[in-house]
Design goal:
Blueprint: H1 3-18, H2 20-35, H3 39-44, H4 52-66, H5 71-75, E1 77-80, E2 83-86, H6 96-108, E3 118-122, H7 128-136, E4 141-146, H8 149-161, E5 166-170, E6 188-193, E7 198-199, H9 208-211, E8 220-221, H10 228-240, E9 241-250, H11 256-265, E10 268-275, E11 281-288
Parallel strand pairs: 3-4, 3-6, 4-5, 6-9, 7-8
Antiparallel strand pairs: 1-2, 9-11, 10-11
Helix pairs in contact: 1-2, 1-4, 2-4, 6-7
């Protein structure tokens, strides 16, 4: 079969569900993954033909896309901040908003690349934040904490794949009794977290490809206590950040002022609430006094 004919089948089967541009994205992510065939080559080689086994692989992708399974889980990988990451349904798919958070941290600390910074990523998931920071701050000692054993397996494999050294910690930030697993490293320079922050009442806004496939443990919080992770992490940061240490959060766009008030009530200074590229309150930072 000609590859361009397979592309037409993708559009016939999926355009009504996803739209033409997104289907093209799915298709060329698949050609790159299975054939090492980037988008521009199809223009140069319109008669490119695939084998039967390759054809079967693409139709497996097509069938799973019809079930609204995320393409990143289908292929088992994604790109984040210029690096490749393995992903499965034990971890959230890294998102552009989180890339913005990483970029903010790096820009704020661009003059500290030669310093032996101590950085802790709480709720590391795939390890995308911790690995990206470790890659670009090579002198830093980076720690990554998560409650999920399966998530830590993925994060460890991503650290190895991207050739960075990270100390992984299995602990529950909501359970003070497990904090001793991380307490041997105090005087941290930076704590960063993208914790669960989607309220149950916001489920109606979530697309099926996220709601039906991504881990709810990493997504949702109870409506009655939506800032519980932020409260616990802020408390932890008060104990483990050094004076003038930096705390960074990715936050619920609807709760920017409430999360900002939490840092203020815990005596953090120089608090900044930043919007993402879509104009939503998404990132927050504060400095420990």
């Amino acid at each position: 079969m000609l590859l361009k004919d397979l592309q037409n089948i993708f559009h016939q089967e999926l355009d009504a569900m996803y739209g033409k541009d997104e289907v093209d994205s799915f298709f060329f992510l698949s050609t790159d993954h299975y054939l090492d065939f980037p988008r521009f080559r199809l223009v140069l080689e319109p008669e490119f033909t695939i084998t039967t086994s390759e054809y079967d692989a693409f139709f497996r992708v097509l069938d799973q896309l019809k079930q609204q399974k995320p393409i990143q889980y289908i292929l088992g990988e994604t790109e984040f901040y210029g690096l490749n990451f393995k992903v499965n349904d034990a971890v959230l798919i890294p998102r552009p908003e989180t890339e913005e958070l990483v970029d903010w941290i790096l820009n704020t600390n661009q003059n500290r690349k030669t310093e032996p910074l101590k950085i802790l990523d709480i709720g590391t998931g795939s390890g995308c934040i911790a690995v990206s920071l470790a890659k670009r701050l090579p002198k830093a000692k980076v720690f990554a904490l998560d409650v999920s054993v399966e998530a830590l397996k993925i994060a460890k494999s991503n650290a190895e794949y991207n050739e960075v050294d990270i100390i992984f910690i299995e602990a529950d930030i909501l359970d003070d009794a497990t904090w001793n697993l991380a307490s041997n490293e105090s005087n941290l320079d930076i704590i960063v977290s993208n914790p669960p922050y989607v309220r149950q009442l916001e489920k109606v806004e979530i697309q099926p490809n996220v709601l039906d496939h991504e881990p709810h443990l990493a997504l949702f919080v109870e409506d009655k206590n939506p800032l519980k992770f932020y409260k616990a992490i802020t408390n932890f940061a008060n104990q483990h950040l050094k004076p003038s240490g930096q705390l960074y959060f990715e936050i619920n766009q609807y709760m920017g002022e409430e999360t900002k008030a939490l840092l203020r009530s815990n005596d953090f200074d120089a608090i900044e609430l930043i919007k993402d590229l879509n104009g939503n309150d998404r990132m927050l930072t504060g400095i420990k006094k």
